Amino acid sequence: MAGSGATFDVVVIGAGAAGLMAAATAGARGRRVLVIDHAERPGKKILMSGGGRCNFTNLESGPEHFLSDNPDFCRSALARYTPWEFLALVEGHGIPWVEKAAGQLFCRDSSRDIVTLLERENHAAGTTLWLETRVESVEAMEGGYRLATSAGPVTCESLIVATGGRSAPKMGATGFGYALAEQFGLQVLPTRPALVPFTLDEGLRRQLSELAGVSIPVEVAAGEAAFHEPMLITHRGLSGPAMLQVSGFWEPGEALTIDLLPGEAALDLLREWREDHPTRPLDRLLATRFPRRFARGLAALHGWTGPLQGYSNADLERAAATLAGWRLVPAGTEGWRTAEVTLGGVDTRALSSRTFEVQGQPGLYFIGEVLDVTGQLGGHNFQWAWASGIAAGRHA
Ligand code: FDA
């Protein structure tokens, strides 16, 4: 594959979503482009994404769906490459798609279709791909960069770092992009897993274990953020879109507040039940709102036994407070192994928001998830990969 002393206009490190998009864009401008990845195939995270159907964009994608220490940075790229443009590309390749929740677009058949799209775009743009290739070192030289790789030395004018975040290390994630950023004097903000399920301490986990598999719509809050989405109880703890979304806002040691009856006045409902069904136990009435197993488990957990007529006003108030604001302190999160994304990363203040080039370091670019820009659940992270890849690919 590699010769010795190969020369390219642009080298992209990382054949993931952002890197392949940047490479195809630069190649289409007539630049000679090389993409290097240490994995044995490109786009491994794309393949596993969206449960195998890749939630490839979100029609609502905008800055308000991203977390960053420098929140305005993402505006320019997101505005200059919209979800509609990526959708047009998907349709141009004849890929069938479906809209699941509002704005969330998935492949109808397989995530493989998106990898094939990127491979075809790269083929058409004449880019070169070296897989199973390690980048050993990078140094700046007059007019560009020199890389030592396991396939020999490479020089280039422009170097695009698209090595992704730390999540899902089995899919090829490394800290290489962060180390490279530090080598060139950029700040790397502390990283932590996000869009990740919560774990519970042994006692609570055991108490909830019989409810594993139950999914109910809730409103969950941590810090300033709240999400109205389904929560899934698992054998390890709490997951589902509500928990994944809120994980990015949760600080270790903090409680989650879970409204199990979002949009309903819990105390009014309990009073009404006591009035209308005084001889019924609470779990039977809760089963009209929740899956039966969950109603029973919740009542057992909180000692809600006996007919409702035996409940004082204070008892009802306590039960209502639990239903409207169940407070749980997670033991932690499942960590990098199952996290979808990485919070933190390369500080964007050092980059041009239009081109993604490092200020004062001509020809060096960082794009995609390696940056301190993290999207919410629902296709925003891929839209960021496409938009940042296009921005750098148009300039590098
Ligand atoms: P990405 O991780 O895609 O690519 C980085 C590439 O760099 C990899 O190919 C890796 O092998 C390579 N690399 C790393 N270190 C290297 C080194 N030292 N040398 C050479 N190569 C190196 N998002 C979304 O919008 N919708 C969704 O449905 C999902 N679903 C989803 C499911 C799961 C299980 C996960 C883990 C993640 C998601 N995501 C998602 C998030 C999404 O996958 C992620 O944000 C993008 O893939 C990020 O794109 P990048 O190109 O930045 O990194």
TrEMBL record:
NCBIfam families: aminoacetone oxidase family FAD-binding enzyme (TIGR00275). Its cofactor is FAD. The keyword Magnesium does not apply. InterPro entries: BaiN-like, BaiN-like_dom_sf, FAD/NAD-bd_sf, RsdA/BaiN/AoA(So)-like_dom, RsdA/BaiN/AoA(So)_Rossmann. It holds the Pfam family HI0933_like. Residues 9-394 form the RsdA/BaiN/AoA(So)-like Rossmann fold-like domain. This is Flavoprotein, HI0933 family. Keywords: FAD, Flavoprotein.
